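Hi all, long-time lurker, first post. I run a small reading group and we've been trying to get comfortable going from sequence to structure in the token notation. Rather than ask abstract questions, I figured I'd post a concrete chain and ask someone more experienced to write out its structure so we can walk through it together at our next meeting. Sequence below, copied exactly:
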Amino acid sequence: MQALPDTQGAEGPPSPSAQLLQASQLVEAKMQTDLKFPVVSELLHASASGDYETPVPRDWQVVTKQRLIPLPDALFEQYDLLECRCFMGLFPEIKRAWITVDHRLFLWNYEDESDFYSFEDQEQIIVSVALVRPRPGVFVDAIKYVLAVATPLEIFLLGVGYDAGSSPAGGRLAGGGGSVTLYATQISVPADGVAMTSIAGSDDGRIFMSGNDGALYEFVYQAADGWLTKKARKVNLTSSFVSYFVPTFLATHHDTSALSMAVDNDRMLLYVLLQDASIKVFWLGGSGSGAGSGGFQLAHHHKSIGNSAALLCPQFNEGTDSAPLEIVSMHVIPPTESRTLSLVAITGGGCRLYFSTVSRMQRFYETGAAAAAAAAASSARQPEVFEIAHVRLPPEPQPTLAAAGPLLQGSRVPRQMLSVHTAFYRNGTALLAHAWNEDHDSIVGAAPACAQILARIAKQPRATLSELSSAARIEGRTWAIAETDSAADGALNDLATVSCAPVRSFAVLTNAGVTVLEKQRPVDMFRMLIAQPAVQEAQIKEFVATFSLDETCAMCFTILCAPSDGALARRYVPGGGMQVLGAARRILFEHGGLPHFAEAASSSSFGAGAGASDGGGAMSAASERIVLSGRHEGLAIYLARVLYPVWKQPAAVGKKERGSAEATRLDLGIPIHRLMDVQDRLRGLLHFINNNQRFVPDQLNQMPIQPANSSRPAADAAACWRAESESLGALYELTQHAAEAISFLCLLADFNLPAISERSLTDAQRKSFAGTAFSDLVCTDGGRAMCRDLILALISSQLKQNASIDSISDVLGQRCGTLFSAADVALYKALEALKLAGDSDEGAEAAALGAGALELLTGIAGSLAAAQVREICASFEALGQGSAAASLALACAAQSDPHDTAVAFWGDGAPANDPREAAYRKRMDCYGCVIELLDKRRLAAASGPPLDAKSLAALPSAGDALFQFALYDWLLETGQTAVLFQLHGPFVEQYLSLEPHTAAKSDMLWHYYIHENEFGKASLVQRGLACAPDDESDGIGLARRIEYLSLSIGNCKIAVDAARSRQQKQTQTQRPARPAAAAAGDLASEADEINELATMLRESEDQLEIAQVQLAMQQQLRSLGGHEAAAAALDRRLFTVTELYDGFAEPLKLWDAVLQLFKVSNHDDPAFVGDIWQTIARTAIDHDGGDSAADGEAGGLMAVASRVARLGRRLYPSPAAFPVALVARILVDLARERPLEYAPGFVCNTLVQASVPHWAAFEALNALYLKSVASRAQPSGGSSFDAEAAQTTADLVAREIAALATAWIECAQNAGPLAEGFDPLAESSSAGNGRPRSTASSNNGGASRAALPLVAVDQALSQYIINATLANNAELKNELQRVQAHIRQAF
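-- Answer (accepted) --
Happy to help. Here is the structure in token form:
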């Protein structure tokens, strides 16, 4: 199995509740409030400042001394061997202090207190040491740092391997210091007698050195020697080109030597502090000056720092003749701390000088995003300015004086300066080593007063920096100060970082050892206050007034919910005893405030942060006037700060393999140790809430529901408590969900998430999961769906390894109860049953297990994804339980769409971007599982029972129209139409009638109607196929259309007969007891049906006649040749009479077709018809085309006779298309014109062969004879007959009548069909047209006489004889007399 199904029940996965979403919004609002704390540059908008606040309690200190780690005795023994120089410093990156004694270098692990490493492999006095980053690609991965050691003769590099060690949670150990290994690199350059006073390195591996000759050098090295470069070389960055040719002893000028250097990696700057208290700024961007080196260009040299500082701050009294300016250290300010300030320099008097590389206009007139953009732009180019932006005066050196109140900046009284010789600054915290006396130093600390700053922000838009200061005395002379965790990113707001950042610790190196100091935060102030045996109520109120009730309650939660692990607790919140916990709990409940309605004039304190009024955020919507208690707001603040390190971090990130464009696996996006740290706090919070029932107040808990002096009614107070209770419950739910989400992520890490995601997740799932924020995982539907899919992937992975999932189910149920429901348990039990069934060798046992699994799965089928259903169906199929697989798939389709939205979507034509499409797609996918099972059974019919209608009807889908249609589609695609006809369900007719109406479906529909004895409906469908447009007919040809019309007529006749039979039967079997109205209604409905069928029959017969003409036209065009396009057009659809005439017959001069169109339309146009017959006759005589030419016959009268006979058999008895008299006259005229070709009987035989009855031919010829005789007697100049022509015509017609009478007599005597001139085709066609064959039906003489109008014929012959006698035409007279005698003798 490739994947497992969704685990939620039929109603779908539980969506995040409205309360959970409300809680997440509240927590995010608190996070945003913390993030709005200003950066240093926003607090130092004035030119100078010197405000220091009085701490609460007053004996609080910025940093407190934790312990003194004395130098090892072995180091003191080495110090006794000192001959020349000794230097000391700190390498906080590797938890080591370094000491040089002449040529010996010692690395002392001050964390371990005894371990130290000595390096004595060279004999030159060491003048400078620095720990820098290695250049990429030069050393092996084990070398994390490079130790640069400078002597007067050479500078060499040592590789440093460092393993910090890790805690069980994955973080760094609080103690121990790790292990250090030194590697000889054999990389060195000569010093040329220059003593390097300072060494600094950049993150990209560049090493800068300042020499005592005033020059700046770069130690350039690479992995191996090049063609033109050495493996290592010393490059002078500040000397001119000429200096390379002047010996050192001849040089008369040296630049001022440097005291120290600092590298700003973000802004690509190098700051160099010179001995004259000036600072040079070098730009490290751009192209390098040589191979292996980067850019280096002097950007600025600030030479008048003292004067500039004095202009900004009149109280600044350094830089005078009496007190020369001394800068003891420089510290880079990263962009995360300030957008516009880049460097702080600390003077010997303790002043902090803040420098900026951004112009004053940009600093003061660009704020927010604009300032950030300006700072980002300046960091990408060489700085245009380097100036002092702010002067910060020092605090007082005496701890007792710090409580005297703030020192006014505006006073011009000289400020008492410190005697600072070593200093440290980072993330707003400054530590100054002030010389207390010869044996002791005083570490003067200064840090932002967060509460006071927030209070000022609440009152005015721009607040100034306010700090707390204190002094702590330490033993010895300070050499270096460093923060022990150099990689930690601190923040100015200690209120916000107390729950997510460890306690800041500092190492102060003196000649007595290392003193460890810890920075105290507001929560430490609070803990110190409540740790007192008898804390005064006034002190608590003073603290609340300073920090606000909300923040005080948040501190209570910080103490009460501190991690249980001792090491973690010491790192984040050093715990207190039972007294501290009890005092924090008491303050939380007794001083936490009450929810109340805000006064009309007061505004909500929501989002105001510290310094706002007691009480918290106002609820929105219906309770927007309710201000919740400080206890509630403290919980929200604490929870926000606990969740902040992971809240917007990606829960999972994609990892790409080499050569892969897409991520092929997932891994956790948050370090596991961070997740566990957050989870410990969340569990502590849950534990506290669960063990303090008074946390969520109600009347049973005996908490006051309103203040004693409140004038509001009790109902209002109850509403306030109800709002608070609901919000607290939401925060509790959020806490629980977040803790379970972390447990789930940790569980995935334990089971190897990368391997699980690679094997059991699709590319789309991996792409969707990658980058999903932890907050979305907890609070959104998509995140919960991600959790479920990952659970399924985990279960699938375990099943593939044939492992039991009971233990995983138990763990998920215990740790992730909200992500793992009862439906999940049912699913996993079903999967386990399927696995056992597959492993079982007993058929009965496997069947029972499969049935049990089906029962479990059917209950949750609606939540199963289609792909997952497919996998489970495959498992059932492997067990030989195909019916169970089909039942599950159909149950999933039914339960996933209980309201049949898919049917409505399909019925509406499947509109695009419709939300119902998802349900439709899922149902179709489920049906696809069943179809696949049926198809496999069809292909394997040889090994099992064949697939028939009975087995298909057994599927549990009688009322599912979508499935029936999918099934019918499959039957048609696989050619199983017979099975489709056998399905008598209610959807077969509907399916075949649905759009699109294809010819194949319509053809099957009329077959289905025939199968169901619905001949009328079959006739209608057949007629529709015949008349279908070309784009809907699937290429049905004209011949096939005529066939459909013929079938339609036949079925319609059957339907008419059946309807009449039913009508007659109803009339005969009508019971007297039945109401007359009902019986009459039945008979009326039958009559209506008969009328409709009769009308359709007539229309179909007319359409068939027109279609036959169209077919004849098509055949004629194909025989003529050159008309392929027209012939093809006639094959595409059925045309009307008008379309055939206008589009084909008349333009293409298809005269035969024109006459046939006249016949079917009964269009009467004698003149035009006469012209057409003249054209046809003349064409036949000239043998110029026509059917005769095609038949290979000769022209002349014989061709005319053949052509007229063929057309007559098609057209007669239509008077509009075949007027017998007109045709007879044309034939007579042609016979008269061509006497040599004429033979008696030509005209009458032609007419008889054209299916004209003898009597009709006789009437036409007799009328023509009489007209000719009349024309002869009365000749007219306007007549077409002159006397001679009329006589000739009359004689010719008389001979034709004589021949006609002779043939008529023979036909009457034989009483059979005429043999002369009749072919079988003409007989068949004439029979179809209803033309009478003969008036004689037997050899009976009476019948013959009755069929032959003897009197009329005899009288006509007598008249012809008289006229022949008068015309002296003896030959004609004798012939007529002979025929008359024959008639009289025969009859």
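A couple of things your group might point at:
The chain has a mean pLDDT of 79.
The radius of gyration is 56 Å.
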